[in-house]
Design goal:
about 170 residues; mainly alpha
């Protein structure tokens, strides 16, 4: 490895490193591209959307489809020998965080405290491994999303229920 002796050498080394990073980002690695496993998530999303729309409930259909969509990626995570474990944990976490976010958003202070606590737990969770962190990330994301639509306890239960149904259908 070459040792930099001047500011010009340091600047050239930084530019070379940035170029290598960009090349790595845009490089196609076809040997790791597997489209069929990615398509396994689609039927549950379509089923949840179709059932909700057929029942005349587009809002709950979208909430459930969001749950199915996010939980579907859990099939690519690993927490234990059981492939469904990250998916089930994510569905439960997303439902709980959706419920909390819906009610907490009635007060900006309470919502901010919940989101801050969630961010702290998510940051600490990086040491637990990618699978566990992914499960926590799903909950944190839905906590923030649910906070955009304040609601009462009835709406909290409805949103959490449809989120859970969509996630379980995906499992």
């Amino acid at each position: 490895m070459r040792r930099a002796h001047s500011r010009t050498d340091l600047a050239n080394d930084r530019q070379a490193g940035a170029g290598e990073a960009v090349s790595a980002l845009v490089e196609q690695k076809w040997h790791v591209w597997h489209p069929l496993p990615a398509l396994h998530c689609v039927p549950a999303i379509v089923l949840v959307l179709a059932a909700g729309l057929a029942a005349g409930q587009p809002g709950p259909a979208l909430i459930g489809a969001g749950g199915a969509f996010s939980v579907g990626f859990g099939g690519f995570q690993k927490l234990s020998r059981w492939r469904l474990m990250p998916m089930l944990l994510a569905a439960l976490n997303m439902a709980a965080c959706t419920a909390i976010g819906t009610v907490a958003s009635n007060s900006p202070l309470v919502d901010s405290l919940w989101v801050g606590a969630s961010a702290m737990v998510l940051g600490l969770g990086t040491g637990l491994g990618t699978g566990a962190w992914w499960v926590m990330l799903q909950g944190s994301t839905f906590l923030v999303l649910a906070g955009s639509v304040p609601g009462d306890v009835r709406e909290e239960v409805n949103c959490a229920f449809f989120m859970l149904v969509g996630g379980v259908v995906q499992c």
